């Protein structure tokens, strides 16, 4: 009986902790410090190759573990503006930046 109770408490704590993640937030430098580049297959994949301007950003979220530590989880967040998309260029301030030719 004690083992079942302990197992139940453990599973409950794991289930409740899994929903305690903070929302995904961009974990990056400020907008004007980003180094945008012309999309290429090596960095951005074949689906974006030569289709616009890209930046490889990252978004992260955190949660507290059972022991009070913070656990951080991150994932890639590619940003993309198609050629000629003036709205996107203005949104990210790309229209006033120098675009690198990263490969």
Based on CA atoms alone, the radius of gyration comes out at: 21 Å
Approximate strand percentage? 25-35%
Total number of β-strand segments?
Answer: 4
Task: Specify the biggest β-sheet.
Answer: 4 strands, antiparallel
Task: Give me the secondary-structure category.
Answer: alpha+beta
Order of helices and strands: HEEHEEH
Q: Whole-Å distance between the termini?
A: 62 Å
The number of domains: 1
Q: Outline, from the CA principal axes?
A: elongated
What share of the residues lie within helices? 25-40%
What integer is the average pLDDT? 80
Total of helices? 3
Low-confidence stretches: none
Task: Tell me what the structure shows.
- By secondary structure, the protein is of the alpha+beta class.
- The chain has one domain.
- It is 27% helix and 29% strand.
- The protein is built from three helices and four strands, in the order H-E-E-H-E-E-H.
- Strands 1, 2, 3 and 4 form a four-stranded antiparallel β-sheet that branches.
- A hairpin with a 5-residue loop joins strand 3 and strand 4.
- The longest helix is centred in the N-terminal third of the chain and has 17 residues.
- The mean pLDDT is 80.
């Amino acid at each position: 009986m004690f083992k079942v109770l302990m197992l139940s408490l453990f599973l409950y704590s794991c289930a409740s902790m899994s929903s305690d993640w903070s929302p995904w937030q961009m974990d990056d430098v400020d907008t004007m410090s980003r180094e945008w580049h012309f999309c290429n297959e090596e960095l951005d994949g074949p689906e974006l190759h030569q289709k616009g301007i890209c930046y490889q950003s990252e978004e992260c979220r955190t949660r507290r573990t059972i022991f009070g530590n913070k656990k951080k989880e991150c994932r890639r967040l590619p940003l993309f503006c198609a050629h000629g998309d003036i709205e996107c260029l203005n949104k990210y301030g790309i229209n006033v930046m120098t675009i690198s030719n990263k490969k």
